[in-house]
Design goal:
By secondary structure, the chain is of the alpha+beta class. It has helices at residues 2-33, 40-47, 51-56, 69-74, 78-98, 125-137, 164-176, 178-181, 193-202; strands at 59-66, 101-108, 111-118, 150-154, 185-187.
């Protein structure tokens, strides 16, 4: 009994630490993708000693939308919805790390934004990222996540974290094409004629 209690306490402690880290990351990544955090000194203070290495890594911004939030919320309490989105971010982090990406995550309503930093630049990044996102979209063994329908917009490859807001806009544009294309995974550089229409729309 005492061993089981000790394990339960350790799990709670780990979850609490992860929640604190996620909450902190959530705030500054949100600022970064919205162009409100472009000062490198402040970024360095937030990220810490790994800033130099991380800032040189190539990355893509992935905008992941839960397409059926009403359906999921209808079957869940508000607390359970928070638990589901928190659980999704933990699973996402695990999957991305498995495919050699370091994810920086922010969560707002039914959207997760991920800055996926490529930790293995000698290997082609796009196929790995595609595999990671397909794995996330097709989780069927996890009771909490199996009913989620996820659609994803992905930016072009970028460098230097202060430029993440540009990549975020590309991911937003890629995701906006979903209703026309029907594809649940959209890369900005593959939008083709849609990219032209988006640029005309911006003009």
């Amino acid at each position: 009994d005492s061993a089981a209690l000790s394990i339960a306490q350790e799990l709670l402690r780990t979850r609490y630490m992860e929640e604190r880290r996620l909450f902190s990351e959530n705030l500054w990544v949100e600022e970064l993708i919205n162009g409100r955090l472009q000062d490198e000194h402040r970024l360095k203070a937030l990220i810490g000693p790994d800033f130099g290495t991380m800032n040189e890594l190539s990355y893509r911004v992935c905008l992941i939308e839960i397409e059926n939030p009403q359906q999921v919320r209808w079957n869940s309490s508000e607390y359970e919805w928070e638990s589901i989105t928190f659980h999704l971010s933990i699973v996402l982090r695990s999957i991305f790390e498995q495919y050699l990406f370091h994810p920086l995550i922010t969560l707002k309503n039914n959207r997760l934004t991920v800055i996926a930093l490529d930790k293995q630049p000698r290997m082609p990044a796009k196929p790995r990222l595609e595999q990671a996102l397909h794995a996330l979209q097709h989780i069927r063994s996890d009771d909490k996540l199996k009913d989620l329908q996820l659609i994803v917009g992905v930016s072009k490859a970028g460098k230097q974290l202060k430029n993440a807001s540009t990549s975020y806009q590309e991911a937003v544009q890629a995701l906006s094409v979903y209703s026309c294309s029907g594809s649940s995974l959209l890369f900005y550089e593959e939008l083709g004629v849609y990219q032209l229409l988006l640029s005309l729309n911006d003009g």
